[in-house]
UniProtKB/TrEMBL annotation:
Top EC category: lyase
Binding sites annotated in the UniProt record for substrate: 73-75, 110-111
Protein name: Cyclic pyranopterin monophosphate synthase
Keyword Isomerase: no
Species of origin: Pseudomonas fluvialis
Assembly and interaction partners: Homohexamer; trimer of dimers.
Record field: catalytic activity: (8S)-3',8-cyclo-7,8-dihydroguanosine 5'-triphosphate = cyclic pyranopterin phosphate + diphosphate
E.C. number(s) listed in UniProt: 4.6.1.17
Keywords from the UniProt entry: Lyase, Molybdenum cofactor biosynthesis
Ranges for domain Molybdopterin cofactor biosynthesis C (MoaC): 13-147
Functional summary from the UniProt entry: Catalyzes the conversion of (8S)-3',8-cyclo-7,8-dihydroguanosine 5'-triphosphate to cyclic pyranopterin monophosphate (cPMP).
Family: Belongs to the MoaC family.
Residues annotated as the enzyme's active site: 125
Pathway of action: Cofactor biosynthesis; molybdopterin biosynthesis
Length: 158
């Protein structure tokens, strides 16, 4: 039985020793809503701090690799693939999609969610001087494949 509680009811890291190694992949999303002029500045490459999307992409990748240091009870994982894609949606939203992959004994959902979240926070940090009304929205798991629990797609019946 997989649980974060030991026999005395104390929190501990799940023991995955006996789980099979399988290919696992997760896709997560976050969105940053901002003023249209802020997004125009980012897309045009006119931000005084540099390429906002490039910095956010690197921050997301670094965060995925360090998820076990940020989220209690997460396993340290040897990720074999991490991608963070950013794009403007409409005139006031940046969509961030983070994908993490590995062959291992536990899933990568937390790594993908962490990558998307930290990329969004990086955009906020870089742009807060020009737009303090930004919001980070819709951080969610979009898809998960592999492992015992099978394939998950957000919004599909289970």
């Amino acid at each position: 039985m997989l649980t974060h509680l030991d026999s005395q009811g104390r929190a501990n890291m799940v023991d995955v020793t006996d789980k099979a190694v399988t290919s696992r992949e997760a896709l997560a999303e976050a969105r940053v809503r901002m003023r249209p002029q802020t997004l125009q500045m980012i897309v045009a490459g006119g931000h005084p701090k540099g390429d906002v999307f490039a910095v956010a992409r690197i921050a997301g990748i670094q965060a995925a690799k360090r998820t076990h240091e940020l989220i209690p009870l997460c396993h340290p994982l040897l990720l074999t693939g991490i991608s963070v894609e950013l794009q403007a949606l409409g005139e006031d939203v940046v969509q961030i999609r983070a994908r993490c992959k590995l062959a291992g004994q536990t899933g990568v959902e937390m790594e993908a969610l962490t990558a998307a979240s930290v990329a969004a926070l990086t955009i906020y940090d870089m742009c807060k001087a020009v737009d303090r009304d930004m919001t980070i929205e819709a951080v969610r798991l979009l898809e998960k494949q592999g492992g015992k629990s099978g394939h998950f797609i957000a919004g599909e019946p289970r």
